[in-house]
Design a protein that fits this description.
This protein is of the alpha/beta class. The chain has seven helices and 18 strands. The strands form four sheets. Strands 1, 2, 3, 4, 5, 6, 9 and 18 form an eight-stranded mixed beta sheet that branches. It has a six-stranded mixed beta sheet with strand order 10-11-12-13-16-17, covered by helices on one side. The chain has a two-stranded antiparallel ribbon with strand order 7-8. Helix 1 runs parallel beside helix 3. The chain is globular and about 50 Å long.
């Protein structure tokens, strides 16, 4: 299976973001002929005020972003992992940071709400409080594509190895990490964390990120980008430059088996609490 990560610079114009997603997907399909395309976190709307973010949220199924992603899968005959976007529900004032995935026929095959919410203070003193707007997910999600099982995660989840271990125990061969990693944390932690998760789970890590600046009421903020695919040995096998774009790599099931056979950590695990 060939996977492609799409790197975007989404901002607060939803229509423009979705148009850019369509353009980048079409270019990636033409150039690399992937079986699976993965978008970044907040691909439809990034930045703005709390009210702006709430207004951008949509119901699943049936919203504009949902239908755009589904249409891309059908148009190109590929599986599409929608990164994430804001989901609204009838039973909560909070919105969710949610991903969906479609098979090449446009069938919904996975839905995942981000479990670990980004409530931190960055090194420059800027505070991020995702939980003020976003509800916490609780369900682990995987889906199957052509004999490859794919696990779902979103951005800040990458810091919590227990989620990735659980995905590996559920048979994941690849784990998707759509993200909007901040510039400051990204330059120091992004690649290190992705490679660590790949090595410890012996899976491919397919990480699509936001890149560049975006507006907030407190001024412009910036994302690190460097979308990449990491193999089960921890090697970066594809990476996007400092721009919008895409990169692709094969998810090689035989190589996964070889790594797991030569270093059988799944059989050596002692502490299981």
């Amino acid at each position: 299976m060939r996977a492609t990560v799409i790197q975007m610079n989404s901002r607060t114009d939803k229509a423009a973001n979705l148009a850019e997603a369509r353009r980048l997907c079409s270019e990636a399909v033409k150039a690399d002929k992937p079986d699976l395309v993965v978008f970044p976190e907040m691909m439809a709307f990034l930045g703005g005020s709390v009210k702006d973010r709430q207004a951008s949220a949509e119901r699943i199924p049936g919203g504009e972003t949902f239908e755009t992603l589904r249409a891309l899968a059908v148009e190109h005959g590929i599986a599409v992992h929608g990164g994430s976007f804001y989901e609204s529900t009838e039973d909560s004032e909070l919105i969710y940071n949610t991903t969906v995935a479609f098979d090449p026929s446009g069938n919904l095959i996975a839905k995942y709400r981000k479990i670990h919410l980004f409530d931190i203070t960055a090194p420059d003193g800027v505070e991020y409080k995702e939980s003020a707007v976003v509800g916490r997910g609780s369900e682990i999600s995987t889906f199957d594509l052509g004999g490859v099982r794919v696990g779902c995660s979103i951005c800040y989840d990458i810091r919590f190895g227990e989620l990735y271990r659980m995905l590996a125990e559920r048979g994941a061969d690849a784990i998707v990490v759509p993200a909007a990693f901040t510039l400051q944390t990204g330059k120091d932690h992004w690649e290190t964390l992705l490679r660590a998760r790949a090595i410890e789970t012996q899976t491919y890590i397919v990480a699509a990120g936001q890149w560049g600046s975006y507006p907030t009421p407190d001024g412009m903020r910036s994302n690190w980008g460097h979308s990449m695919i990491v193999d089960p040995w921890g090697h970066v096998v594809a990476q996007v430059s400092d721009t919008t774009g895409f990169a692709s790599a094969f998810i090689d099931s035989e190589y996964i088996s070889k790594v797991r056979s030569s270093v059988p950590v799944h059989r050596h695990r002692v502490l299981k609490g």
